[in-house]
Design brief:
The chain is an alpha/beta fold. The chain has helices at residues 42-49, 112-130, 149-160, 172-181, 192-199, 217-222, 246-250, 261-264, 268-283, 300-308; strands at residues 3-7, 16-20, 30-40, 58-59, 63-71, 82-85, 95-99, 104-105, 140-143, 164-168, 185-187, 205-210, 224-232, 255-257, 291-296, 315-319. Strands 3, 5, 6, 7, 8, 15 and 16 form a seven-stranded mixed beta sheet that branches.
């Protein structure tokens, strides 16, 4: 029987409810997909807690992969094709009816669970390396949460582009994974800014990729060289409080940005470009996608607890 994970009130992981659902028919420009795997991301937590407002009730989730069951008019996809997506609301489900423009075909060489694990975090890593700035050979990049889902992919893409990566993480297991992904140095969070400067002979890093937010923000700024860039793309430790922009001047005419994937996949062309690059690299064996944990769809609450408790590495999936 079809099921979804419904959020009827904001709050802790316990508000994620496993409920039976009706499967709708696709309308014009839509496709109905039988879901094989669902990606779990911190943005799902932000919606669940109310940090990012969303009308209630709603079906959780944005990312997944599966097989097309039916299509509406004006859709080029066909039943039986394998597809993946990063921005289809209601993806914590056994079936999804989504705009076909948001679905991308999955190469035969890529398993559907790997595709589900690649889309949001893989395309995020891609725009961080090839969108927010143009990574140059010889750059030094600091990557926080280096053993997380984005972190491991980000390290690989940075190294492929010629950068030296300094990672931060919180355990020996995560350090090992970060080094295997290509990080040249891996630090703990204590005094990471001082260590980053020491490793760069006092110069500082060209760019810092910060998905942690509140607890790392100040150190991230202090890790940068003059005219360096801070890319704040998440806030797993909480939002960054307002701060005086004059500090960017005092620390060396720094740049800072708070991007989102939606703005870097806003057109069909850019979505196809980023998804194609990520899935193509996975198909060719150049990008290793680590699936760190799998939970049944009915265990969505426990998946969120594991993610929020930083008990996971790589990607967390729900399996309908």
């Amino acid at each position: 029987m079809p099921h979804t994970i419904v959020v009827r009130e904001t709050g802790g992981a316990e508000v994620l409810r496993f409920e039976p659902a009706e499967v709708g028919e696709p309308g014009r420009g839509q496709a109905r997909v039988a879901v094989t795997a669902v990606g779990v991301n911190f943005i799902d937590v932000y919606f669940r807690t109310g940090l990012y407002p969303r009308p209630l009730p709603y079906v959780a989730g944005l990312e997944g992969a599966g097989v097309v069951e039916a299509v509406g008019p004006d859709v080029a996809l066909r039943p039986g094709e394998r597809v993946a997506w990063a921005s289809a609301p209601g993806s914590y489900a056994t079936h999804v009816v989504a705009p076909a423009a948001q679905l991308v075909r999955v190469p035969e060489a890529v398993a559907l669970d790997v595709a589900a694990a690649s889309m949001l975090q893989g395309m995020t890593a891609h725009y961080l390396v090839h969108g927010c700035r143009t990574t140059q050979a010889g750059d030094v990049a600091l990557v926080h949460a280096a053993a997380g889902g984005v972190g491991l992919l980000l390290i690989q893409l940075l190294v492929e582009a010629g950068a030296t990566v300094i990672g931060t993480c919180s355990s020996p297991e995560k350090e090992k994974l970060s080094r295997e992904a290509g990080a040249a140095h891996v630090l703990g969070y204590d005094a990471f800014a001082d260590e980053a400067r020491r490793l760069t002979d006092g110069r500082g890093c060209d760019v810092v990729y910060d998905s942690v937010g509140q607890t790392t923000f100040d150190g991230s700024l202090r890790s940068l060289r003059p005219r360096g860039l801070l890319v704040l793309f998440g806030q797993s430790s909480g939002p960054v409080p307002p701060f005086d922009l004059g500090r960017l001047n005092a620390l060396g005419s720094l740049f800072a940005t708070r991007p989102s994937l939606a703005h870097y996949t806003a057109s069909p062309r850019e979505l196809e470009l980023r998804a194609g690059a990520v899935l193509g690299a996975a198909a060719a064996g150049r990008l290793h996608v680590r699936i760190g944990a799998r939970f049944a769809l009915s265990e969505a609450a426990e998946a969120h607890r594991a993610l929020e408790g930083r008990r996971t590495t790589g990607k967390v999936l729900l399996v309908p």
